[in-house]
Amino acid sequence: MKNKILVVDDEQSIVTLLQYNLKQAGFDVITAMDGEEGKRLAETEAPDIIVLDLMLPKMDGMEVCKQLRQDRIMTPILMLTAKDDEFDKILGLELGADDYMVKPFSPREVIARVKAILRRTQTQAVIENENENENDQIQIGKLLIYPEKYEAYFNEDLLELTLKEFELLLYLAQNKGRVLTRDQLLSAVWNYDFAGDTRIVDVHISHLREKIEVETKRPVYIKTVRGLGYKLEEPKTE
Predict the structure, then answer these.
(1) Integer angstrom CA distances of residue 45 from 4, 5, 66, 114, 214
(2) Going by CATH, does the domain composed of 4-129 fall within 3.40.50.2300?
């Protein structure tokens, strides 16, 4: 069964280029020329992955990504943009995009990224299904995580987390007590090293601490191991 890809871009030449090359690579392709139509198709057509332009009419790619994640639609998103701007890259990833490419790009690179994302997400789905009974919940102190529902609670309150914040928290919890380097976290959560730019990890750790630590400057859950990375551990005192 072919994977279905939704391409959302307002440049007809790019849509045509991607549609042709993705079909040649064996994918089913549906397209949209604006953000509102892209969001509607993402909700109704259940694509396996979305290739989403940042600058779109009616609703930009950031807002499409944000609204889909708020609606618990976790379809992988490869974001495209003409902007080579670090702020845009980090914001897009924080909102839940899975990968990021800057225009101009080669169709072969897009296909390679799409295949890599699908490989990771499909493998993860198999692992989650196999371990569904074992991973019903993870509890560490006042932190309670439900992996299969993409939900986390602290002190019985539902945490408002972006997709990447949730995945980072889950990975830390699954490796409780283990020191994880920034490069390990980049590889495990973002699946792409961003040319060694580990600052995105620090940004997300800071956001998580704001949500689960009483005192962010004296964390008892997510500890910094100087010169190495981070670890999540059972708090000794709360």
Answers:
(1) 9, 10, 18, 18, 43
(2) yes
Q: Where in the chain is the domain with CATH 3.40.50.2300?
A: 4-129
Enter the tokens of residue 1.
Answer: 């069964």
Residues 6+ apart with CB under 8 A from 183: 193, 196, 198
Dihedrals phi, psi of 96, to nearest 5 degrees: 120, 5
Tokens matching residue 118: 């699908």
Residue range(s) occupied by CATH 1.10.10.10 in the chain: 138-232
Q: Is 71 helix (H, G, I), strand (E, B) or coil?
A: coil
Query: How buried is residue 51: exposed, middle or buried, by Cβ count under 10 Å (0-12/13-18/19+)?
Result: buried
238 pLDDT more than 50: no
CATH number of 138-232: 1.10.10.10
> CA of 222: how far to CAs of 64, 90, 173, 179, in Å?
31, 21, 10, 10
Residues 161-183 pLDDT 10s? 887 889 899 999 999 999 999 88
Q: How far apart are CA 238 and CA 233, in angstroms?
A: 12
DSSP result, 100-147: EEESS--HHHHHHHHHHHHHHHHHHHHHHHHTTTTTS-EEETTEEEEG
pLDDT tens for each residue of 57-114? 999 998 998 899 888 888 889 988 876 666 666 777 777 788 888 888 888 889 988 9
